[in-house]
Design goal:
heterodimer, A: mainly alpha, MetI-like fold, globular, B: 2 domains, elongated, Transp-assoc_OB_typ1 (chain B), ABC_SmlMolc_Importer (chain B)
Chain lengths: 269, 355
């Protein structure tokens, strides 16, 4: 009896050298969130949540993150396809460039956006002169800043999914008379749909939390460019409780959406 | 003489490998490309489908030039009148059986309704009406194979290509599907090229066999010729014959020093000699009568082969002999043992090496 118990036990025994850092890592990730919950002013939560600025910032955040995700899908999926399926000179360089926003401090990204899309930038100036369109310090600017920072998440996820799909399905489609575009829309895209969805969720979550590039490129105007993270930052300077409440809202929205989508698309065990 | 429907000289260079195959297929004919793994059969099939461009040579189908590198002519796969049944079928996992089959007709410009109708008709013909709504993951191996066939046939291809169509099936299903496939291949009015490493599939399904080894055609002909007159060790092994090469002078073929076999027909020059392993008899000592077609041999190995034991012999001739377990017990066959082998003259076939 003891022998069998021991044998079963060894199968599940985790080395302490792994268990301790794993537990510490989990604590490190969860404790701050717990602190947030501890400091939440539960009694005055209702009135604070319905304060006019909160809902406006939340709505703006969700709208901008969603628009930024759509922009990333429109541009990022074709780019991911190109990287995964077409051999061209400089492909490694392009792949490296695509991931630059991942490692770039978002504030730097905001400055770079400002230099190019600002009123005196080469593209921003032309847009202003030709169409009278101004991007910085507008809601469109928020969407652009979020898309700039979040697009690599989508591209990496979709490219990975594309590499995982047997490209012979595309050959089969070709032998059935499908050109490359039809093959892409009818075969490739449906096959990578889970990967695209996972990438879109990551992209959306990243866009929702975007702060540095947004405040640099789009400013902090309530109702126009002030998203939740910006509102949290601003509230922190005057009213800690308000910042906590706003953070709680942001946390709840993120967790609910990620949890809701995870089982359906990301496919964890 | 009418030109063949498919006429090609397929030359494809890949790293360290060259495929060079001359291929002609008449309308209604089924040709099997038979060869060991890595011989270039699948490369040939991909070149026919347009999934791999030719390096040199040409490919004409129904009088239309599909690929001709020296004239910079290449018709991409989606514009070739070709249907392909892939080895693991490659049914689109996100589409039902019906939509898989309708995919081709839809690309040919049929309306969604007409395409689905055509798909339903084909599935019906293949006895899959009940499975039309199922996804590939819900089909058995045999059903998936038939859906793949329906999908390839639904585009009414001039050329039907099948890559190891039965390889993914278990032995039981294989017999049924092979019979069905034979039936549909017979019905197919265009040309059909089948790639397989299984001689049974080739013999059962094809009108003509083209044996490819190391990128080249080593033998071609109908089933009877290939099975009785193999020209390479590979083909001989496939059809279960001992193949030897020697020199004929009239009524005998000398196979090795001091050993010759008689032939039924007059033959001169380089010749192949074949005889089945069952025609070889083993003796513990030199048989009496001083038979001319007896030779000393060394046992190299013994293994079970059906209800016989197959004995591999080396020495003067590398050959295989089939003996019954009773005989084997009497001979106490062990590797390294010296025996005498003889072959019945009536079982020996001989034919010239030259074409």
């Amino acid at each position: 009896m003891t022998a069998s118990t021991r044998r079963r036990g060894t199968g599940q025994r985790v080395p302490v050298a792994l268990l301790v850092p794993a537990a510490l890592g989990l604590l490190f990730l969860v404790l701050p969130l717990g602190g947030l919950l501890l400091r939440t002013p539960w009694t005055s939560l209702g009135p604070r949540l319905t304060a006019p600025g909160v809902l406006t910032a939340l709505r703006l955040s969700v709208q901008c993150a969603t628009l930024a995700t759509l922009l990333c899908l429109t541009l990022g999926v074709p780019l991911a396809w190109l990287l995964a399926r077409v051999e061209f000179p400089g492909r490694r360089l392009v792949r490296a460039l695509v991931t630059v926003p991942l490692v770039l401090p978002p504030v730097v990204g905001g400055v770079a956006l400002l230099l190019v899309f600002g009123r005196r930038g080469p593209i921003g100036g032309w847009l202003d002169a030709t169409f009278g369109v101004t991007l910085p310090f507008t809601t469109t600017g928020v969407v652009l800043a979020e898309a700039f920072v979040a697009m690599p998440f989508l591209i990496i996820a979709v490219e990975g999914a594309l590499r995982g799909v047997d490209h012979r399905y595309e050959e089969a489609a070709a032998t059935l008379g499908a050109n490359r575009w039809t093959t892409f829309t009818r075969v490739t895209l449906p096959l990578v749909a889970p990967g695209v969805a996972a990438g879109a969720v990551l992209c959306w979550a990243r866009a929702l939390g975007e702060f540095g590039a947004t405040i640099t490129f789009a400013g902090n105007y309530p109702g126009r460019t002030q998203t939740m993270p910006l509102a949290v930052y601003l509230a922190l300077e005057t009213d800690l409780e308000a910042a906590v409440v706003l953070s709680l809202v942001l946390l709840t929205v993120s967790v609910v959406i990620l949890a809701g989508l995870r089982d359906r698309w990301i496919g964890g065990p | 003489m009418t030109p063949p429907l498919l006429d090609g000289h397929l030359v494809v260079d890949r790293a360290g490998f060259r495929l060079d195959v001359r291929l002609r297929v008449a309308a209604g004919e089924v040709v099997a490309l038979l060869g060991p793994n890595g011989a270039g059969k699948t490369t040939a099939l991909r070149a026919l489908a347009g999934l791999h461009p030719l390096t040199a040579g040409w490919l004409r189908l129904g009088g239309v030039e599909l690929d001709r590198p020296d004239a910079r002519r290449f018709v991409p796969p989606e514009r070739r009148p070709v249907g392909v049944v892939f080895q693991d079928y490659l049914l689109f996992p996100h589409l039902s059986a019906r939509d898989n089959v309708a995919f081709g007709p839809r690309r040919q410009g049929l309306s969604r309704r007409a395409a689905r109708q055509r798909a339903a008709d084909w599935l019906d013909r293949l006895g899959l009406a009940e499975q039309a709504g199922r996804r590939p993951g819900q089909l058995s191996g045999g059903q998936a194979q038939r859906v793949a066939l329906a999908r390839a046939l639904a585009v009414h291809p001039t050329l039907l290509l099948l890559d190891e169509p039965l390889a993914a099936l278990d032995a039981g299903t294989r017999l049924d599907v092979r019979a069905q496939l034979h039936h549909h291949l017979t019905d197919h009015a265009g040309a059909a090229v089948l790639v397989t490493h299984d001689p049974l599939d080739a013999l059962a399904l094809a009108d003509r066999l083209v044996v490819v080894e190391d990128g080249r055609v080593v033998q071609e002909g109908d089933a009877a010729t290939v099975t009785t007159r193999p020209r390479t060790d590979y083909v001989a092994r496939l059809v279960g014959l001992n193949l030897h090469r020697g020199r004929a002078d009239g009524r005998r073929v000398r196979l090795a020093d001091g050993f010759a076999v008689p032939t039924a027909d007059r033959l001169d020059g380089d010749a192949f000699v074949v005889f089945p392993p069952t025609a070889v008899t083993l003796h513990p000592d030199r048989p009496g009568g001083d038979a001319p077609h007896t030779w000393p041999a060394t046992v190299a190995g013994v293994h079970r082969h059906g209800d016989h034991l197959r004995v591999r012999l080396t020495g003067l001739l590398d050959t295989a002999a089939d003996v019954t377990p009773a005989v084997a017990a009497g001979l106490r066959l062990l590797p390294g043992q010296q025996v005498w082998a003889s072959v019945a003259a009536g079982d020996v076939g001989a034919y010239p090496v030259g074409p």
